[in-house]
Amino acid sequence: MKFDVVFQNGTLVTATETIDADLGISGEKITAIGQNLPKEGAKIINARGKYLLPGGIDAHTHMEFPFMATTSADDFESGTTAAACGGITTIIDFALQKSGETLEQTAKAWRKKADGKVVIDYGLHMIIRDLNDRVLAEMKEMIGQGITSFKLFMTYRKEGLLLDDGAIFRVMEEAAQHHGLIGLHCENNDLIECLMSRYLKEGRKEPKYFARSKPPVVEGEAVHRAIRLAEYSGCPMYVVHMSTEMGAETICEAQHSHLPVYAETCPHYLVFTDDVYNRPDGANFVMSPPIKKREDQEALWKGLAKGEIKTVGSDHCCFTSEQKKLGKEDFTKIPNGVAGTELIIPVLYHFGVSKNRITLNQMVQASSYNPARLFGLYPKKGTLAVGSDADIVVFDPEKEIRLTRENLHSKIDHSIYEAHTVKGYPVMTFSRGKLVQENGKFTGEKGHGKYQVRNPFKESEGKQLLAPALV
User: Fold this and answer.
1) How large is the average pLDDT for residues 366-389?
2) Are 125 and 156 in contact (CB under 8 A)?
3) pTM higher than 0.90, yes or no?
4) CA nearest neighbour of 213 among 227, 228, 224, 202
């Protein structure tokens, strides 16, 4: 057998195994794993002292996302370039339905924006904001076309995103019939609006009051309510960007009741605590939900270690310092969002694996394997196996990088991680066999990425993913 590329002397890391072996790829696929693979005619990558990881899957991005009187700074080219440089080889972006628009129209509009720009592979979730009988009927069609997950908001009334509990229940019932997965932004909107109004009347308009208007109970209550709706409808659900101990405990209780309930957290919740909102650049840290306290952060790490929190997605929705100034006089007008797709793997390794909070295999579970299983991409993606896409990350555990704006690849003019240096970083990223990043330099091509048709949610997959949390 002949190969295009052979990786030698590396340590292969999957969700369950860590082995020393060679890996060969031909075209876009992994075609052999073993010892002393033939090298004739192949490009040889000496991976001695390095880990070979399956390409990361960031299941939570917002590229070119219209939000709060502006649009997120990264387009599909710059955003996926940043992702590739951090070892991410697939993103799943959120397509936002406009008022009065069909889901089919939304999907076509998002494909038009992304196709031809993406440098790595991508799929789509569908955000439903304008629910009617026609849209409900379309959900089956969307699932048949490979858009198998739908996001609903329990907040952002003023932005026109909130769905009430009845609408959420109707969407869940429909998804349950056709093997869809419902993702939820879980925050209690009425309490948020009450607290925001109070702070504004008192003249308290700084970024720290954004965080104070969204205390942990805002998320905890909404997660509990969403789980009850999902349980009654028979629908699997996925809590996006989990930020609190209260929310994590509620997820754990549901999983121990054998409910198909899954959760994601984000890099920023694993690194920062809410004291960042007292900084002069506090507006740059405004995202929703906001960063919480140390005990919440520790609960998230424990949730990852116990297998209760399944994935880490970036919620990459970044805005420049100038865009953040839209809320200079009123924290409710600060565009919500930060960058992060480039940092999922480095954060999990430096702050998790190297500090013995999680294992190397658990890092792969949260960054690749679990999102592949949940969102219908496995075994094409999410693992290193013969027949899988050659999405491969060469990871150097000794490489140190300071996470400055100059060393990262997003379009924005700042890095919230500026003060942090991490040890352990991707030094090569292969997307379907093509080298797209080497030593921090993007080497790929605009338009290389392919749209991914995803499989419907499988109950059997979900039960297998629940198992670690039930041990």
Assistant:
1) 98
2) no
3) yes
4) 202
